[in-house]
Amino acid sequence: MTHRPDDALTPVFDRAGEATRRPRDRFPRTPELPETAYQIVHDEMMLDGNARMNLATFVGTWMDEHADRLYADAYDKNMIDKDEYPRTAEIERTCWRMLADLWHAPSVDGAAGTSTIGSSEACMLGGLALKRRWQHARRAAGTSTEKPNLVMSSAVQVCWEKFCNYWDVEARYVPVTDEHPVFDGHDLADYVDENTIGVVAILGVTYTGAYEPVASISRALDAIEQTTGLDIAIHVDGASGAMVAPFLRPELEWDFRLERVHSISTSGHKYGGVYPGVGWIVWRE
């Protein structure tokens, strides 16, 4: 078996009656056995690193065999078609309601939530809800809905940069410094104004794992509302902490116990114990 980089062809194992090369970037002219197609893709993935040795991206790489079997049972379910697959949809609903209870939603029955394709999509939905809430309030007051902004730490995960880019929101970053190694609400009045759709707090900064003190950020926003009348909501990016803090730091108030926290997102595939990629988002109401 040979490899010729100049012809952009993928080598395969010899089989009687088959060509030993196939085009990489276009459909082949002839069919091939399923075993051959499997071997081609399988060998490509062999070049990746060992997922069990990945310590960089907070991704779960192991589940027990019963969870593996449940994954296989659900491969063919189009979960978005909730009329066709109501029991699968009910399982999803059960999961986010369990999270709503874990995160101290004042009323689980009054909460709202959904699963997402990874936590980045959950952050997108959380940010979009903040923008919609702000737009509705501004329109009701007869004021402009132009130039929305979102305030967050300079150590925020890149998905928030993407959110601001996708939905035309100005990103306002509070710098991380030696004096303030995490976003703790300091000088917050310098960053928020009538166009601020919300503030993002991170429960598990990507670089350090540190929890931003959501309660301190909430108190800073309370003080701002008292002086300016601005009612600014918090979205907690649960990141690597929302599945851990309720068990290791149950006394820590970061979740819906704080009235200013309107929504929380997290990754099921970080410390939720499942493979990538699933995320969750829950709204207070």
TrEMBL record:
<dbReference type="InterPro" id="IPR010107">
    <property type="entry name" value="Glutamate_decarboxylase"/>
</dbReference>
<dbReference type="InterPro" id="IPR015424">
    <property type="entry name" value="PyrdxlP-dep_Trfase"/>
</dbReference>
<keyword id="KW-0456">Lyase</keyword>
<protein>
    <recommendedName>
        <fullName>Glutamate decarboxylase</fullName>
        <ecNumber>4.1.1.15</ecNumber>
    </recommendedName>
</protein>
<comment type="similarity">
    <text>Belongs to the group II decarboxylase family.</text>
</comment>
<keyword id="KW-0210">Decarboxylase</keyword>
<keyword id="KW-0663">Pyridoxal phosphate</keyword>
<dbReference type="InterPro" id="IPR015421">
    <property type="entry name" value="PyrdxlP-dep_Trfase_major"/>
</dbReference>
<feature type="compositionally biased region" description="Basic and acidic residues">
    <location>
        <begin position="15"/>
        <end position="29"/>
    </location>
</feature>
<dbReference type="InterPro" id="IPR002129">
    <property type="entry name" value="PyrdxlP-dep_de-COase"/>
</dbReference>
<feature type="region of interest" description="Disordered">
    <location>
        <begin position="1"/>
        <end position="31"/>
    </location>
</feature>
<dbReference type="Pfam" id="PF00282">
    <property type="entry name" value="Pyridoxal_deC"/>
</dbReference>
